[in-house]
Structure formats: structure tokens, C-alpha cells
Automatic annotation (TrEMBL):
Keywords: Methyltransferase, Transferase. GO terms for biological process: methylation. This is SAM-dependent methyltransferase. The keyword Protein transport does not apply. It comes from the Bacteria. The keyword Transferase applies. GO terms for molecular function: S-adenosylmethionine-dependent methyltransferase activity. Pfam families: Methyltransf_11 (PF08241).
Length: 206
């Protein structure tokens, strides 16, 4: 990992993924969380303050030490305990069927082994457990999708492996996860922002 990806990208992600207009999407992803929650791609803690009162603990998986440091102030204000238990979503140091619910927001785009990470979430969830998600990804509009494929390589190089072309509902379904709730739309903004702004928000069950 180079200096840009290790030191600069976490600050960029903190600013862009922490924008106020994304908070309602994060809140929808958090709806239904309860008990002990594993959050993959914890980042700088932008979801803190949005967890429902039924949540008792957050088990954070975050590969970036810089992002974890950026989350310190938010963690200090968290109404529930937050602990960092791993660096890699595809290899969770948790027992089978050991957590109640899971959360992933604006992170499936960057996880190298995204199928492995979703498979791990399915493994560690207790029966009846659900995954809340809010992610940007592949647009169903052919013109926008063409631009996403054209820009995908550059996007990955500049933004820590972030993909524009991942089909979020399909990724979930491919790992045997049942999408129960799904809302998809573009974020507000000019037409030129559409390759980055097609968002899927919802809940899936194991």
C-alpha cells in the first residue's frame, strides 16, 4: 500500500462519505439493527449516532489505521461500546452464528474479496440475522454504466480500490443472502455525477 492510499485516501473518504446528504441513507441502512452488530468498513465512524437503541455493541472491522484514528472523537461520544476486532472483512475473527446483525455502508465498493466478505457476514450471523447496507454501484442505465466501466480503472487507482461497477443486489444474492428491502436511486446532483451516484440501500437476511 502506497503513501497516497494509506495516508491520503482515508481523509478523502472521511469527507466524501461523511457528507450530510448521505446521512439519511446511512440511517435507513441502520434501521433494524439490534444487539451485537458487526460493521465491515467502519471507516471514520460516520454511522455513530445513527444506530437504533436496540444496538448494544459495535464490532468494527476497519483495515485503515488512519481511518480508525479519525473515528476517535466519534467513538468517544458513542452511546454503545465500539471495539476494533479485525482488518479484513473476508476473514472475520468471529465464531459462527455469533452476532445478531451486520452493517456495511459505502465499503463493498473497495473490499478486494467482496464475495468472501459477504460470505463471512452470512457465516457469523445468528439465525434470523440481517445485514443493513447502503452502497453505490452499477447503474441499470446503459449510458451511465458505459461511463462507469470507462472510469472504473482510474477510480480504483485514485480512491483505494473503489469500484464503480459492482452490482450490489447481485453480489448479495450470489452469496445466498435474501434482499428483503431495497431502494435504488441516484443521489441529487448534475448528470455528470451519475457514474458515482447510483445508490442501493436496504436490508438482506442470511
Amino acid at each position: 500500500m502506497g503513501l497516497w492510499e494509506a495516508r491520503v485516501v482515508p481523509h478523502i473518504v472521511d469527507r466524501t462519505c461523511g457528507l450530510p446528504q448521505l446521512e439519511p441513507l446511512r440511517a435507513k441502512a441502520c434501521d433494524g439493527l439490534r444487539g451485537q452488530v458487526v460493521e465491515i468498513g467502519f471507516g471514520s465512524g460516520s454511522n455513530i449516532g445513527l444506530y437504533p437503541p436496540e444496538v448494544t455493541e459495535i464490532i468494527a472491522v476497519e483495515p485503515s489505521d488512519v481511518a480508525w484514528q479519525l473515528s476517535a472523537a466519534r467513538r468517544s461520544r458513542s452511546p454503545v461500546p465500539v471495539s476494533r476486532v479485525g482488518l479484513d472483512g473476508a476473514h472475520l475473527p468471529l465464531a459462527d452464528a455469533s452476532v445478531d446483525t451486520a452493517l456495511v455502508t459505502f465499503s463493498l465498493c473497495t473490499i478486494p474479496d467482496v464475495a468472501g466478505a459477504l460470505g463471512e457476514l452470512r457465516r457469523v450471523l445468528r439465525p434470523g440475522g440481517t445485514i443493513g447496507f447502503a452502497e453505490h454501484g452499477l447503474s441499470p442505465d446503459a449510458g451511465v454504466a458505459r461511463w462507469q466501466h470507462r472510469l472504473d480503472g482510474l477510480q480504483q487507482r485514485l480512491f483505494g480500490g473503489c469500484h464503480l461497477t459492482r452490482d450490489i443486489p447481485k453480489l448479495l444474492a450470489d452469496q445466498g443472502l435474501q434482499v428483503e428491502l431495497l431502494q435504488q436511486d441516484y443521489l441529487p446532483g448534475p448528470a455528470a455525477s451519475k457514474p458515482w451516484g447510483y445508490v442501493s440501500v436496504g436490508r438482506a437476511s442470511a
